[in-house]
Structures are given as structure tokens and as C-alpha cells.
Amino acid sequence: MDPNVTHQRLTDRKRVAVIGAAIEEFLAAGFDATSMDRIAARAGVSKRTVYNHFPSKETLFAEILQQLWDASHMGEAPAYRADRPLREQLLGLLLRKLMLMNDDAFLSLARVAIAAGIHSPERARDMVARLGEREEDLTVWVRAAAADGRLSTADPVFAAQQLQGLVKAFAFWPQVTMGQPALSQDEQQKLADSTADMFLARYALPASG
């Protein structure tokens, strides 16, 4: 095997180990109390190795936020279709989102980001601004359905935020803040069905479900 390839794989493994250790340390001690020394010890690498990958704790935290950002956009979501029932399309989007929120790695990243934001409002503002750079999949769908005259809302962003809130109240905040177990598949389906029905009862125009 090419020694350069072997070295690169080892380097990549160390980088992954450093990020994983940082997530655990940030969760255990908080951003401000976490040191690069503790991250290196938990990762089983030298502090020099940590700094080779990440020049500062802020850079390492930014990488964790990037991973959270990447995870929250798991490929292109199904686009709005004028020829399909609204409920069928909405259920697909909701179940897709619930699958993400059921992922332990995603929830760990979210806990780190939220905890750091609580202790540093400036960091939280930066994070929110970053996440707002791209419209969320549900917002894109609501906007398209409203433009097509099948949903009645003058503010698609507000309507989409309501939709998100209905889901996150059961499948995100209890897990992130209170350590509640992730929803089972049956619970996810029940939540998706109920959320879709409530949302469409409020916003869908007649004969557009």
C-alpha cells in the first residue's frame, strides 16, 4: 500500500478522534472550561496533533458547527409538486426531518452548539446567522405551495416555523435538553400524521389536500 495513503488515513482518523473528543468535552465541561489539553488526552493524541488540525478551540468549535450544518442538510429534499396531494408531500418531509432528529450524532452536535450559545450570546448570534443563510427545506416547500395557491399564508416563513415548532416540541427539545429517549418509528409516524393534519387544517385551501 502507498505509504502516503496510509499516512493520510491515519491523519484523517486522528482528526475524527479530535472532533469526537471535543464534542464529549464540550458536553461534559462546557466550551469555556474545555481546554485543548483535555481534548488531546481524551482523543489519545498529542496536543501538537490537535493544534496541527485546529489552530484554536474556536476553530475546533467552528468545525463542530459545520458538521451540524452539514448534517441538517442531508441531501436535496423532495421538491414541491403541484400534481401530488399536499398531505402526502408534507408527511414525507416531516418523516425525513424526524429521522435526522432521531440521530444520536446530530443530537450531540446540537447539544454542544446550544450549550455554547447559552454561555456566549455573541457566539449564538453567529450560529443563528449561519444557519439562516439557507432556507430550511420545510420553508422552501411551504413557500412553493403558497405560491401555487394551495396554502393560504402571507408569511410562509412564519408558517414553516410553526410547523417546525410542532415537531421539535416532541422530537428535539425534550431529547436535547432533558435527555428524553428518541421517538420510536411508531411515535414518529403518529407525530408526523398529527402535525400534518393540524398544519393543513390551518393553512390548506379547499380541495388542495
Give a structural overview.
Helices cover 73% and strands 0% of the residues. It is mainly alpha-helical and 209 residues long. It has two domains: 3-61, Arc Repressor Mutant, subunit A (Orthogonal Bundle); 72-203, Tetracycline Repressor, domain 2 (Orthogonal Bundle). Helix 1 packs across helix 2, helix 2 crosses helix 3 and helix 6 (104-119) crosses helix 7 (121-131). The longest helix has 27 residues, at 3-29. The N and C termini lie far apart (58 Å).
What does the secondary structure layout of this molecule look like, with pairings?
Layout: H1 3-29, H2 36-43, H3 47-53, H4 57-71, H5 86-101, H6 104-119, H7 121-131, H8 137-147, H9 156-171, H10 173-178, H11 185-203
Helix pairs in contact: 1-2, 1-6, 2-3, 4-6, 5-8, 5-11, 6-7, 8-9, 9-11
Protein name: HTH tetR-type domain-containing protein
DNA-binding region: 35-54
Pfam families: TetR_C_7, TetR_N
CATH fold label of the largest domain: Tetracycline Repressor, domain 2
Q: Report the β-strand fraction as a percent range.
A: under 5%
Helix content: over 70%
Structural class: mainly alpha
Tell me the name of the CATH homologous superfamily of the largest domain.
Tetracycline Repressor, domain 2
SSE run: HHHHHHHHHHH
Q: Give the total of beta strands.
A: 0
| Unreliable residue runs | none
Oligomeric state: single chain
So what's the CATH class of the largest domain?
A: Mainly Alpha
Instruction: Give the domain tally.
Output: 2
The radius of gyration is 20 Å
Instruction: Quickly give the CATH architecture of the largest domain.
Output: Orthogonal Bundle
The shape is: elongated
Number of helices: 11
Largest sheet properties: none
Mean pLDDT: 85
Distance between the termini: 58 Å
